[in-house]
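Fold this sequence, please.
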Amino acid sequence: MIDVINLQKNFGGLQVLKGVNTTINKGDIVVVIGPSGSGKSTFLRCLNCMEDPDGGQIIFRGVDIADMKVDINVHRRHMGMVFQHFNLFNNKTVIQNIMLAPVHVGCQDLRKAKRSNTINSIRNKFVGEKKRRELIPITTTPAQIKAEAKAQAIELLKRIGLEDKADVYPSTLSGGQKQRVAIVRALAMNPDVILFDEPTSALDPEMVGEVLDLMKDLAGEGMTMVIVTHEMGFAREVANRILFMDEGVILESATPEEFFSNPKHDRTKEFLSKAL
């Protein structure tokens, strides 16, 4: 699903990513671990071009999304993102947060289709029958798009047991509730892959479990996920591959069994001796 080829990223004179190479296949649960400052979060943010790479390629669904000529917003629709600090809109209710992207994208596509049909209808009047362009069938309205997004949002809230919080604002939620809402907000776009940037590091210890349980459910359903985390137990239980990063490169890529029981690199052994 994603091929990362010689990915590089600089901040000023500091090279943070120094030629990262990896492949993420459909259904993979890839956990990225490593010491602070190793480039983990930068790597994740480069995957959906929230940070523009300075070199290399990111091939997503057959397109190099690191190419500046590519409309990245089209491809971001298929790549969800869950942040360390939730990034919910505090001036919108829970259900409005979940509905926001599906409604925006749905209405945007509808406007584009109507605009295209208007242009082609005018054009078709001045060309022969063989050169006429087919119009795009329009079978929905903005009201229907909003109604469908709301119905989906309610179902997602039921899934995480927060349907009674639909009309409250994020400030009234616990950290664990906010993060679960952030995860189903990403799910509302039906993404091909979800990127998690340390999703539990801002939570109190008693709230970590409810977020990890939801992520385990997604893993069980076959959702492709790339997760930056310090939760070693979660990595061992859920990941099918672990990437160990240090100083801007992937030093080791292995299954959890291999990684934890028989690490190959001395730096990996040193890290695990302190982390476990």
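The chain is about 40% helix and 20% strand. The beta strands are 2-11, 14-24, 29-33, 55-60, 63-64, 79-82, 193-197, 224-228, 241-246, 249-254.
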